[in-house]
Predict the structure.
Amino acid sequence: MAALVIAGCGSGSSKKTAQPGASLTPSSYAFTIQTTNTTSGAQEFSLVNPGDASLDIAGIGVSGANAASFAVTSGSGSCGSTLAPGANCTIYVTFSPAATGSYAATLTVNDNATPAAQTVSLTGLGIVGNVPGQTPDTRADAMLSLMTQNEKLQMVMGGATEWWNYTVPLGGGYWVPAIPRLEIPELVMADGPGGVGDGVGPATVLPASLAGAASWDLNEATKYGTVIGTELADYGINVNLGGNINLTSREPRDGRTFETAGEDPTLAGRTIAARVAAIQEQHVIAGLKHFALNDQETGRFTANAMIDDRGMRESDLLAFEIGVKDGSPQSVMCSYNQINGQYACENRHLLSDVLKTGWGFQGFVLSDALATHSAVDAANNGLDQEQPDQQYFSSLGAAITAGQVAQSRLDDMVHRVLRAMYAVGLFDVPQKIQAIHAAADAAIAQEIEEQSAVLLKNNTAQLPLNGTTLKSVAVIGSHADVGVLSGGGSALVHPIGGAALNLPPDCPSNLVSPGGAACTATFLIYDPSSPLAAIAAKAPGATVVYNDGSDPAAAAAVAASSDVAIVFESQWESEGMDLPDLTFSHNQDALVSAVAASNPHTVVVIESGGPQLMPWLPSVSAVLEAWYPGQNGGAAIADLLFGSVNPSGKLPITFPASVADLPHPTIPVPDPVGSTTPFNVDYTSDGFNVGYKWYDTNGLTPLFPFGFGLSYTTFSMTGVAVGNNLASASEPNFQVTFNLTNTGAVAGAEVAQVYLGLPLGSDEPPRRLVGWQKVMLAPGASQTVTIQVDQNDSSHPMSTWDVASNGWLIPQGDFTVYLGNSSASSDLAVAGTIHVGP
């Protein structure tokens, strides 16, 4: 006996059942659509044969007085002439109302099954693809089947008609217009990695992305992403162009270092993955950028990153792989530069072979602004969407007609964009533009800064300061009387309350056009959070004076008459520029040296986007790296200096002792400067030895190692044991277990770090980070901590990339497990060894 079921989505239902041995022909369902506009749409029905005999379908149609407004389409998955037992198929009914009002019709299915009991069951109606409960892929395919060719093409290119002279709705950066006929919402995209960017509106300035990574805390990373996602959604923006995961410690002078998450692919990958997942929980498409090896800004439009396959697989690409697999981003932005002679946005190996096929990325690849160089090659090699305009993809339709690009490739491009929209709920969650939660988000920004600032030096327990005993404090330099520094370029966030200072960009003289325009077109902003005011509030009985630091001698005189001198030293960075060196600009080092010479109790607070040299380090008593500290940065700095919060941040990037120790002491430039001819940036010399791995491999001692950070308390790690569960078939792993004790007098947090040395002969650096855990303890408290390292984790902790097999392999031999609180060998102890192989 066979039965026929018609099912849809929405409200309303009808059911007719015939007795066994009889047929019900036609099987039908009467329905009514109430429209409030004359936009065309489509309804979706599913026919199911749950019986044990095939059904011959003679015809499907729509009848009734309003039948002319409806039509059965033949989209993908539509029903043919026969429906096998247990099979199902889809009916699409389009409707084009002539006016608003009520439209009634009857969906009819004629069958030739006689005798058979027929059951017709329909529950409501819904726009095709916009029906919850199905997978994003199924919904995307359903919607795709109803789109015209022009509608498909609209989805794969930006809505701007020309660069530099267009307006994006809601102040966003990129835009794809809506398709009202099918209720496909517009995509409005906005930067950035540290808050709501572009011209969207005032928003919470989070501490710089690199600062957030210095917390070494994925819970804080989740909060970071939640603030970005909720504020974008509150402004009506549904795509975030953040997620900068480039390992810029290859070139720490990179002007976008502050946008990244550090030098280690595992730390960076997991941090950005947690932020991406949190953003998408707010129904905003999140992504990773800039894919790949966009590790310097100088000549970024024409730089050709030269690197071998293993080198990039174990460094920059590994960070992206972790981000893709752990964070499930729905977009990836390809970069301006070339990789091994091919532009990133038409690099088949990266976009198709690695990203989509190798890692199973299901979202869409969009270009950075003007990073598209062709229509045919870009589309065929994996680019899904050109932004911000249609300079090249405007010819995509003609290329398809000419057979240069397959129709199936366009359909895949559109499917990926639609799938991303369904995956984060853009079709299901109504847009609700509302005021952002400024106070609550600012509190989160302050918490993240307090967990991320790194105490680099603290001689004779200079810090924390005692606000009840201090009589006089000198606060010097870096506009600390009004605010805290913020980075520039597309990552710039316009702060709640307006900028304390809005200055011209401090671009270096070595800018290379045209990429340098991103620096000259931005602003140098100080966020409105005064360290001076916050410090004065912490020491109510002290005389707190401010000196702007423009005259080192005058500043030294003020410092000499004070109990303590707090010097703020800052270095601005921006997209479109690289720093000429790692010294502080505008003679600030001379300022610190003069103040330190006049007052032995000199504390330096650094506001920077990355590593800096410190020639004055031996002469100061304390150094706090505050990064770009964000919306409540002044208050956070004061809390840290006076001990209301105990510093617990750890460096996510190595601070070198000299520019001469970098893999590339001189930044490669086009020849001649400004040439549009691609020029090589040779990464074959460092390969996967990025950051601390470079220094360890070459026996170089940095100024401060990766993972380093002091506290106002002390910790011990005892009873260390390594458990080997690699033989487990279901979850091969090893575990490092130890007792962590706060041996000091104040509460604090320690980041216990596990590093792994691979077997001799594996041609790897001495150690790699494979796990960590941040633990908060009261004074005298102890906790048993276990850090588990899973062999099959997306970070491939025990593996090396094997070029011959094009895959990850675990070398045989003895692995050495280290436990400590930085990457420096002096801060690590051998926890045990693990043997793999015979």
Residues 480 and 584 are 16 Å apart (CA to CA). The chain has a mean pLDDT of 89. The chain has 18 helices and 38 strands. The radius of gyration is 30 Å.
